[in-house]
Structure formats: structure tokens, C-alpha cells
Specification:
Chain A is mostly helical. Chain A contains 10 helices and no strands. Chain A is extended, with a radius of gyration of 21 Å. The N and C termini of chain A lie far apart (about 55 Å). Chain B has 4 domains: about 70 residues, no CATH class; about 100 residues, Severin, CATH 3.40.20; about 80 residues, Carboxypeptidase-like, regulatory domain (Immunoglobulin-like), CATH 2.60.40; about 110 residues, 2-Layer Sandwich (TolA/TonB C-terminal domain), CATH 3.30.2420. Chain B contains 12 helices and 20 strands. Chain B has a 5-stranded mixed beta sheet with strand order 2-1-3-4-5, with helices on both faces. Chain B is flat, with a radius of gyration of 44 Å. The chains are: A mainly alpha (about 200), B alpha+beta (about 450).
Chain lengths: ~200, ~450
């Protein structure tokens, strides 16, 4: 029986584990689920706090999870957990700031690209349509065009792209992100005009 | 492509991330992870966060796993309610049992307690009992002397006998013989004899006039019951002063740490608070705009002078931060300083009714006809430096009323510089350009600074 359980925990997908937790209320299921993403949660927390505080935050988020998962109908656990993590960190940051009265810069945090959550699983991928989007690619600014081309079509890593173009590593990242978004917009416009 | 990632059930392997951050992956693998991160903001953000720290987070992650397991285990412990209930029931029974026994014993204890008090103070009579003979003798000649100190025991046994010195029983009563207290001291080797003595004392009703109650057998010298010692307090007085100018700080709070006691200083900074006189106490002094101060006060010290330091920038600017967007609004002081440093206006009316509050939204203070900038220029150009001023530099602040029809009256100098300068300042304003009245059509007080320089 224990072995069976173990198997379920290891192989079941997120939704099944969520169901099982909601049905039984057993923390084992939730813990197994949480463990899959704990390193990501921890990584996100590291953006806001130091290592020790991040570990505490990870445990606190688990406590929140125990309660909130029972209350909410969650479709995509991973995305939901990401939002939960961010929200927790921001709330925590605010309460810390209130207490200490000092300013913590939120400038460095990228604005959430919410659309990626929505489009995340509908299969409408940028790459699948890259062939159709060669035209769109031409409309991009030079840096974005080169970065996107190298990254998506030549399948180079960020490091390679940075080496080949001479751009800064962080710039490369944002070129690719923005290029991808611009391409998507361009693509959707094309679709609209075709339809 | 995103489908592929969604099918990965187990998030992203920490080891893969570690190798990526440490630069151990080849470019192909790096590219794959980076592409995955582009489709997965969760992963992207985690990578960002991890990148700022050492790549090897193995120990931290293991620690987290352990903590998670402990957390889950804790929950399971709670799933044994049967044992808990039994334990709880047993504890309740036990407590109830102890309670009943205590209740029975309680009256006797009271009796004893009554007698212990005079033992220290009012020199009760002592009854000596020696060498296990249990001949209780009453003496009231030697007040306040304990059994061991009695030089001439009144018993028939010679005092030099070694057994005698070891075996002593002291029986004391207060003068009214309300009750009896027997304290029998002895060597550890003879507890049985102690008991005997106690019994003997009990069996001596003729001497003790039938009031034997609460015979106490003790191996320690009698000590006054701590609960009966009166709580000793004293008034600690002092003065809280500002470190800058040694002036008294009114309204500062002085709290005794660890108690609920405290005080607030009066208008001269004086305070008085009752504290335990037997021990050191910790005080915490706080005042708005000053650094809080903690200090230990010995039980001999009194009439303290506590200096506290001014706190710089104790009021931070108020910053409003939204998710991802940052906005900063600096709140200015309560008196609205509207334009340049030289012109202050002060509004004198009360804005209490809802109506006037609504008006305030679009409220415009009185202003000079051509605006403040040209008004400043006018003043600078037209002020005549009085010859009597003897090279004084400074400004004169003039307050006046702008009437509903724009007339100016009730001139008063708020900040004086020199008599001739003051009159000159009023003249310049009086003869100056007309003012536009306040937008609510009421007369309003205004302040203007007129600079003077030779």
C-alpha cells in the first residue's frame, strides 16, 4: 500500500494530486506536489529576500497552500503557484517595509507578462508559426531581429547570442522577450487581416 | 512546444538549474532551458532569483525538503486524537484529585501561616525539647532566641550531653496562643526521632492548652514565608531632558520594562513611577521625534536625569508603490508653501462644513494680479533700502488680509528686522499691484516675505 502511494505521488500529474489532497486532506499529497516546484518557489523568493528568509518564505507559502488550495478551484497548479508565490513575497515585502520604513526598490522586477499565462497552454506557439512570420521578423528593430533569429532559428543559447552579437547578456534576454512579443502581435494582426 | 513543457510533471530538475547557473551545460542544453524559461515565467523568475546567489543551493533545498517532511509529519501526529483524549481525561482527573487534597490541607496551613509572622518580629515564646525526651517546656523569658542559641536550656538534662545539641525542637506561639507552630530541627540520621518529637508535642495538650494545630516538621531553619513579605516598592523620580538644550521633555513615556508600570512626563519633563525597591529595574524612555532609550536603574538610584537624543529624519517620506510600477509622492508640510521661498500664504478660515470642503478641491488662494513671479520682481525692484538699516540683511514677513474685493488691510509684521525696514515692507506691499481675492470670495490672511539687502 505504501509502495502504491509512493507511486501515485511520483507519477500522478498535478491535477490528480490536487484532487487527491482536496478529497483526503492529507498533507502527503500536497507535499509531494509542492516538492516538484519547491526549487522554483525558492528561486522566486530569492529575488526578494536572502537565503534564510527565502527558506522561511517557502515554508510559509506551503502553509498558505494548505488553506488556499481547498478554497480555490485551480486549473493550472504551476501557474497558480507562481502567482501565489509572487503575491506572498510582495505582501511580505510590504509589511517589512512598513515596519522598517525603508524603501526597497521594485524597479528591477519585471512587469508580469500576464498574457503568457493565458496563452500558456492553448498550443498557439510562436515557434510553430515562425515560418509564416519571416515577414514579421523583418519589421522588428535590428537588435531584436538578430537576437530572435539566433535564438529561435539557429537555436543558440543566450551566452552564444551575446558572444556573437556583442550585446550585453541582459540586453539579449530582453531583446528576445520583446522580439517574441512583437512577433506575436504582428502575427495576430496578420491572422485578423486574413480572416 | 509549450505542451511539451506542461507535460513535465516534476517542475524543473534542481540539478539542471544548478549546472545551468554554474555554466556547466553545453550551449544546446542551455538553449533548451532558456527557451523553456521564455514560455514559463515561473522558471524564468526563479532563474533570475537563483542567479544572484551561489549556483549550488543543494544544502538549502535539502533543508527545505526536511522541513517540509517535518511539517507533514507534525500534521500526522495530530491524527491520534484517541490518545490525546485519554491523556487529557487522565490529566483532568489528576488535577481534580490534587485539587481536592489541597483543599483538605488548606485550613491547617492557614493556621501555621498566622504564627510564622510574629516569629520574626514579636519575639514569641519558645519551647525547648531536647534529647528526644519530648518534655516540652514553655519559656517566655528569652524572646527572639532560636533553639540553638539558648544557652541555658530549661530541661533537666545537662546541657553538655552531645545528643542534646543535635536534637532540638522549637515550639513557638504568639502571645495570644491562637495556634502552635513547632519546628523540629535535627540531624538527617534521626528522622524517626523527629517524628517522635512531633508526636510528643502533639501529645502535650496540657501545656499547649488544646490548641495544637498544624505541627510542622522541617529540616531547614525557619524562613519567613515569601508570600507574606509585603511587596516593597518605591517611587522612582526623574526628569527627561533633551540632549540638545537640556530642556525638559513633556509627554515622554517612561515604561518599566517587564511590568505594566509606566508614566508620562509632565510639562517640565518630570515623572514618577513606582518600582520594586529590591531590584534593579529597566526603564524605557520614548518621545516622538527622539531616539528611544533603555537604561538600567539600580535600587539605590533616584532623581534621575535622562537625556534623550533627537532623532533625525524620523519621519520618512511617504512612498506609494504598486505592483511593478513605482510612484512617489512627497507630502509637503502642513503649511502650503506655494511658490518660491519668499512668499508664504496662510489660510485662516476653518474649513469644516462639507460644502466648504468641496470648495476646497478647486480652492485658489489669493494671488497678486500678475502672478507671483512678477510680484517678486516688483518687490525686489521697488524696495528701498533704508539708510538707517546699517547694512542689515534679512527679510521682513508681513501678514495682511486680502478682502473679498481685493483690498488689502490689517497689515502686521510677523518677523521684524529693523523698524524702518518693517514700515518699508508694508509700504511696498500697500502700494504694490492689486491682489485677486481667494476663490471662495472670503477675506483671507496672506503672508509675504520682503527681502532686504544693502
Amino acid at each position: 500500500m505504501a509502495f502504491l502511494h509512493h507511486n501515485i505521488m511520483k507519477d500522478a500529474d498535478d491535477a490528480a494530486l490536487m484532487q487527491e489532497y482536496k478529497r483526503s486532506g492529507k498533507l502527503d499529497y500536497l507535499a509531494a506536489l509542492y516538492q516538484r516546484y519547491m526549487n522554483l518557489v525558492y528561486g522566486v523568493c530569492l529575488r526578494f529576500f536572502d537565503e534564510e528568509a527565502s527558506k522561511d518564505a517557502v515554508m510559509q507559502i506551503f502553509e498558505e497552500l494548505i488553506v488556499k488550495l481547498k478554497q480555490h478551484e485551480v486549473q493550472n497548479f504551476k501557474s497558480w503557484l507562481h502567482v501565489l508565490t509572487r503575491n506572498y513575497c510582495l505582501m511580505r515585502l510590504r509589511s517589512l517595509k512598513n515596519r522598517e520604513g525603508r524603501e526597497i526598490s521594485l524597479d528591477g522586477l519585471p512587469v508580469m507578462e500576464n498574457d503568457s499565462f493565458v496563452h500558456h497552454e492553448n498550443g498557439m506557439s510562436v515557434e510553430a508559426h515562425l515560418q509564416d512570420m519571416e515577414k514579421c521578423l523583418e519589421t522588428l528593430p535590428e537588435e531584436q531581429k538578430r537576437s530572435v533569429d539566433l535564438f529561435y532559428l539557429k537555436e543558440k543559447s543566450y551566452r552564444e547570442v551575446a558572444d556573437m552579437t556583442g550585446y550585453d547578456m541582459n540586453k539579449v534576454k530582453s531583446y528576445i522577450q520583446n522580439g517574441k512579443r512583437n512577433l506575436k502581435i504582428c502575427m495576430e494582426q496578420q491572422h485578423a487581416s486574413q480572416a | 512546444m509549450p505542451h511539451k513543457h506542461n507535460d513535465i510533471k516534476h517542475g524543473v530538475d534542481p540539478e539542471l538549474i544548478r549546472r545551468y547557473l554554474a555554466g556547466e551545460l553545453d550551449d544546446k542544453a542551455m538553449h533548451l532551458l532558456e527557451k523553456q524559461a521564455l514560455d514559463d515565467p515561473f522558471l524564468a523568475e526563479a532563474l533570475d532569483g537563483l542567479a544572484a546567489y551561489a549556483p549550488d543551493q543543494q544544502t538549502n533545498l535539502e533543508d527545505l525538503n526536511n522541513r517540509l517532511e517535518q511539517r507533514v509529519a507534525r500534521k500526522q501526529m495530530r491524527k491520534l486524537p484517541v490518545y490525546y483524549r485519554w491523556t487529557a481525561a487522565a490529566i483532568v482527573l489528576l488535577l481534580a484529585g490534587i485539587g481536592v487534597i489541597k483543599m483538605w490541607q488548606l485550613p491547617e496551613k492557614h493556621e501555621m501561616a498566622k504564627v510564622i509572622v510574629p516569629q520574626d518580629t514579636t519575639a514569641p515564646a519558645a519551647i525547648m525539647n531536647e534529647s528526644g525526651q519530648a518534655s516540652a517546656n514553655l519559656t517566655d523569658k528569652k524572646p527572639g532566641i532560636g533553639a540553638s542559641d539558648v544557652p541555658k536550656p530549661l530541661s533537666a538534662t545537662p546541657p553538655a550531653e552531645p545528643v542534646m545539641a543535635k536534637k532540638k525542637a522549637m515550639l513557638q506561639s504568639d502571645t495570644t496562643t491562637q495556634g502552635w507552630y513547632a519546628n523540629i530541627q535535627g540531624e538527617p540520621a534521626a528522622p524517626a526521632k523527629d517524628m517522635e518529637v512531633a508526636k510528643e508535642v502533639e501529645a502535650a495538650p496540657s501545656v499547649l492548652s488544646g490548641k495544637v494545630a498544624g505541627v510542622n516538621i522541617s529540616r531547614q531553619p525557619t524562613a519567613p514565608a515569601p508570600a507574606l513579605a509585603p511587596a516593597r516598592t518605591r517611587m522612582l523620580r526623574g526628569r527627561v531632558i533633551s540632549e540638545n538644550d537640556n530642556s525638559g521633555m513633556p509627554g515622554a513615556t517612561v515604561a518599566v520594562i517587564g511590568t505594566s508600570k509606566g508614566a508620562i512626563t509632565d510639562k517640565d519633563g518630570n515623572f514618577a513611577v513606582s518600582v520594586d525597591s529590591t531590584e534593579k529595574v529597566q526603564l524605557s524612555v520614548n518621545a516622538v521625534g527622539f531616539m528611544s532609550k533603555k537604561l538600567a536603574i539600580g535600587n539605590e538610584e533616584n532623581n534621575l536625569n535622562i537625556a534623550i537624543a533627537q532623532q533625525n529624519n524620523s519621519l520618512n517620506e511617504v512612498t506609494v508603490v504598486g505592483y511593478g510600477v513605482q510612484k512617489k509622492s512627497v507630502v509637503t508640510s502642513a503649511q502650503a508653501t506655494i511658490t518660491s521661498k519668499d512668499i508664504h500664504r496662510q489660510e485662516m478660515q476653518e474649513m469644516d462644513s462639507e460644502k466648504s470642503r468641496r470648495k476646497k478641491a478647486a480652492y485658489q488662494v489669493p494671488s497678486p494680479g500678475e502672478g507671483f513671479e512678477s510680484y517678486e520682481k516688483y518687490i525686489a525692484k521697488n524696495v528701498r533700502y533704508p539708510s538707517s538699516a546699517q547694512n542689515i540683511t534679512g527679510k521682513v514677513r508681513v501678514a495682511f488680509t486680502v478682502k473679498a474685493d481685493g483690498r488689502l488691510e490689517n497689515f502686521r509684521v510677523l518677523r521684524k528686522l529693523q523698524p524702518d525696514c518693517d514700515t518699508e515692507a508694508i509700504r511696498v506691499i500697500k502700494e504694490g499691484p492689486a491682489w485677486i481675492p481667494a476663490s471662495d470670495g472670503k477675506s483671507t490672511r496672506v503672508q509675504v516675505d520682503v527681502p532686504f539687502a544693502p
